[in-house]
Amino acid sequence: MTTAQLVEQIKKKQSFLCIGLDVDLNKIPEHLLKEEDPIFAFNKAIIDATHHLCVAYKPNTAFYEAYGLKGWKALEKTINYLNENHPEIFTIADAKRGDIGNTSTMYAKAFFEDLAFDSVTVAPYMGKDSVEPFLAFQDKHTIMLGLTSNAGAFDFQTKLVDGKELYKKVLETSKTWKNSQNLMYVVGATKAEYLADIRQIIPDSFLLVPGVGAQGGNLQDVCKYGMNDSVGLLINSSRGIIYASKDEDYAQVAAEKAKELQAEMAEILSV
Amino acid sequence: MTTAQLVEQIKKKQSFLCIGLDVDLNKIPEHLLKEEDPIFAFNKAIIDATHHLCVAYKPNTAFYEAYGLKGWKALEKTINYLNENHPEIFTIADAKRGDIGNTSTMYAKAFFEDLAFDSVTVAPYMGKDSVEPFLAFQDKHTIMLGLTSNAGAFDFQTKLVDGKELYKKVLETSKTWKNSQNLMYVVGATKAEYLADIRQIIPDSFLLVPGVGAQGGNLQDVCKYGMNDSVGLLINSSRGIIYASKDEDYAQVAAEKAKELQAEMAEILSV
């Protein structure tokens, strides 16, 4: 998918919501556990109920790998279901991968070719040759960790390197990499005011923003500091939507929660 | 597996060799492609031929994920084969994972419980709460990226933070984390002289050293600067062993290459 197609969807749906499909079998409604594939059954119901309210879905691979082969199969079914029924939706494999060159190419093939995701998240620690193999795929997007929303972000990401925070150094350096136009960035919403600085470095890139809702970020602030002329934001919510109800009405309640966020986004977009 | 058991194996086998099982279907002998599961068939033959010469095997998850469900199944069969037939061997899931707390716990479950690896590699960018969930597992080992062996290591890892290189900051900081005794570190062999500095910071930890052979590192130098009283080193070789021959004799040639390294290690251990 091209960035232009993503922007078109955002304008059409009046939404820049991404829903995180982080399925924990201990948290989904009990009646689903009787299904042959409870993870996919859960995802399918969530997708069916919310696809008109969001522009992206983001399964975090950890939640699938934890269930072994069954989990990987559920991930495959989920992405296939999305690509077949909602090809206009932007899909994100939240995998946070990164390895030396030829190995990163294998990861890129896993997510871009075998599973046919539109994008994958990657970690920057190993530098240029660990990320460029992902960037080589046309119309695919590589979403690199910039400033994350967890407490540990302050351990290294905000330390000063050459007089500026490491995450800013990461953002700046990545702009010099080959096919850097295929980069997007993860920027945590718990530090919305940092977004102004970040926009100085990467004014045009899309930002994937986790941490609105459950992790305490504020949508208005994120938009105030982070939005650009093409919107340039994907706001992720996982638990706040998919686990809003643990009863049989979980998909309906998820849709209500998604609708609340979408309505707030429509209002922001209308200004 | 405990660290003491690993050290015991090293002394018994006179080897601290780790063999990387990075199976690329384009690189294995052609006759294997007729097998039902070529990846596992390749791994099984390599393991059967080399298990007495090494103390650890390290499948890199990228090479399995790239083949989807079939790949994940081959990974599962490989680790099960190792645990059933060679429980004394230390197993490493080279996955370079890392995510926010509850998500890292899911990754830890995937590799320590579902697949029953002894250890997993992780990336440090997201800090303390992305690594500690792995450290909570008893007699399991978390091998964190310190200084990697690729060119991109110089993009961020060697930049100065508070007057010292980022990778040193990472090593130092990690020592303060809960259950840090379960940490080992990835340190690239292409910079053997850095090992002296690294040993100042983490004198007692095991180091997983990739990059001997194909990537140009020198075993003698690595041992000179990196060995401690408990040996404290696992030297990884992947391509130099498993792809030494592309013919039907591949397992035998792999064993010859492994034997060369093991003999060199035995000599170093005897001094």
TrEMBL record, chains A, B:
It catalyses: orotidine 5'-phosphate + H(+) = UMP + CO2. Residues 16-254 form the Orotidine 5'-phosphate decarboxylase domain. It is an enzyme of class 4 (lyase). It comes from the Bacteria. SMART domains: OMPdecase (SM00934). The active site is at residue 96. GO terms for biological process: 'de novo' pyrimidine nucleobase biosynthetic process; 'de novo' UMP biosynthetic process. Keywords: Decarboxylase, Lyase, Pyrimidine biosynthesis. Its EC number is 4.1.1.23. Gene3D superfamilies: Aldolase class I. CDD domains: OMP_decarboxylase_like. GO terms for molecular function: orotidine-5'-phosphate decarboxylase activity. Pathway: Pyrimidine metabolism; UMP biosynthesis via de novo pathway; UMP from orotate: step 2/2. Belongs to the OMP decarboxylase family. Type 2 subfamily. This is Orotidine 5'-phosphate decarboxylase. It comes from Aestuariibaculum marinum. The gene is pyrF.
